[in-house]
Amino acid sequence: MKDKKAMKSWISELNLSHPLVIAGPCSAETEEQVLKTAMELKGSNVSIFRAGIWKPRTRPGGFEGVGEIGLKWLQKAKAETGLLMAIEVANAHHVQLALEHDIDVLWIGARTTVNPFAVQEIADALQNTDKIVLVKNPVNPDLSLWIGAVERLHNAGIKKLGIIHRGFSTYEKTKYRNNPEWQIAIDMQHKYADLPFIIDPSHITGKRDMIFQVTQEALDLNYDGMIIETHIDPDNAWSDAAQQVTPTQLKDIVSNLIIRKETDDADDYQQNLLKLRLQIDEFDSKLLEVIGKRMKVAESIGALKKEKNVAVLQNKRWNEVLEKMISDGNQKGLSEEFIVQFFKAIHQESIAHQEKIFNS
Ligand code: PEP
Ligand code: MN
From ligand 2's centre to the CA of 55, what distance in Å? Predict the structure, then answer.
């Protein structure tokens, strides 16, 4: 299903590096900062230079970007380095200015992807242009909004599309700034197997020392590129200081990444893989068989409860089961997070089966 040629269509058409490396500051701050950063990135694996011109800030009062003047600095940086230039656009006015200033790549930010009105306005303003457009995931973990944004651009005749995974907001504090929720991104990758998939480890981690690990994880999952915030003086950046790296650090990160092949044709690899996959298939079918049997028992319990008019949900029992499974799972090397998710799903299915018995 995955046609690698089509997937890399604009990356290979434009002779860009693979994996694709996009780097540059969170925000364009001064002409000097833009030019210096771009010059230091020139001649590396970087093929696209990023810089935010208008910054969506969660609360007012922060630095909101330099605006239109920054586009002139990017034009200069492009003339001096030959790098393609990328900015974030959030409305039709931004698009119009980007087109006027010959910006090559436009990305739709996470706070814009959530808003179909804004995405449609951007798609209309870009109608039938030849720009590269990258769609970040929405701030909330909603696959349909992400898909919807890509569809709107596709319907506007945009051919050079790509996807950026920048993680999702959570109310609870985690070790990430934005939780990766890899499964949502994998679902998106599955849906758009022919579009380049780009990791944004800067906004996922919020911390420069976690960037390498998250980027490697993405490459292990077959991503096609990365967008990494890079600044000549990260600690004094006007936005997102903690997550930006220097051009030297960026080159280090990129050169230490291990690039995985999608597959290997060698006979020994294929034969070993086949054997192991047969084992997995067998375990999967056993799993289903056991879970099916477990449901039958749950149904019998449902019938018993119905007869005695007892509630389906028994919190005390459920907590005991979960605790025991977390501790048993731990001994088998299974994470608590997995056990909780897995048994919650099983428990919900059991409840649904018992409800059916109650209502029959
Ligand atoms: C950015 O790339 O600087 C940015 C604002 O990103 P996001 O939309 O992912 O928050
Ligand atoms: Mn940023």
Answer: 8
Could you tell me the pLDDT band of residue 58, with boundaries at 50, 70 and 90?
confident
Q: Identify whether the C-beta of residue 156 lies closer than 8 Å to the C-beta of residue 127.
A: yes
Superfamily of domain 4-260: Aldolase class I (3.20.20.70)
Residue 85 has pLDDT above 90, yes or no: yes
Residues in the ligand 1 pocket, defined by CB under 6 Å: 26, 52, 56, 88, 109-111, 136, 166, 203
Q: What class does CATH assign to 268-359?
A: mainly alpha
Residue range 247-286, pLDDT digits in tens:
999 999 999 999 988 888 888 999 999 999 999 999 999 9
Q: What is the largest CA-CA distance in the chain?
A: 81
**66: number of CA atoms within 13 Å, CB side?**
20
| First-last CA distance in the chain | 43
Q: In angstroms, what is the span from residue 25 Cα to ligand 2's centroid?
A: 8
Domain limits of the chain?
A: 4-260, 268-359
Alpha carbon 224 to its chain centroid, in Å, reads 12
The CA distance from 120 to 304, in Å, is: 55
Helix (H, G, I), strand (E, B) or coil at 188: helix
The whole-model pTM stands at 0.86
Q: How far is CA 57 from CA 52, 236, 284, in A?
A: 12, 18, 46
| Nearest ligand, CA 240 | 2
Of the candidates 2, 47, 39, 44, the one whose C-alpha atom is nearest the C-alpha of residue 20 is: 47
